[in-house]
Amino acid sequence: MLYLAWVTLGTVFYALSKRCKGKNARAFFTWGAAGFWMLLLPAIAPVVFSPILAPWMWPLLLLPALCCFIAGVSAIINEMRAQQRGEYTDAA
């Protein structure tokens, strides 16, 4: 059931990325959507890898999602800094 929440959050983030005007804000929501969808990797691990090895692979399988979330936070920080300076990143 938790996997359904991740898919839903990923879809909502992706839909929000289409409504953003700033390129960095759009990147934040796109990276966030990718991160939520990457959280599904541990669910597929027992199917792809041996079920015996799957529990030890959780940190390795969650690493791509963590990288996506870090990239998203970096993008939104860039957007906030640009707005503080008055340089808006609208796609004109």
Q: What does this entry look like structurally?
A:
76% of the residues lie in helices and 0% in strands. The chain is mainly α. The radius of gyration is 16 Å and the shape is elongated. The model has no long low-confidence stretch (mean pLDDT 86).
Concise summary:
The chain has 92 residues and is mostly helical. 76% of the residues lie in helices and 0% in strands.
Number of helices: 4
Overall spatial form: elongated
Oligomer class: single chain
Task: State the total count of DSSP E strands.
Answer: 0
Distance between the termini: 41 Å
Taken as a percent bin, the fraction of beta residues is under 5%
How much helix is in the residues? over 70%
Rg is 16 Å
The helix/strand series, from N terminus to C terminus, equals HHHH
Mean pLDDT: 86
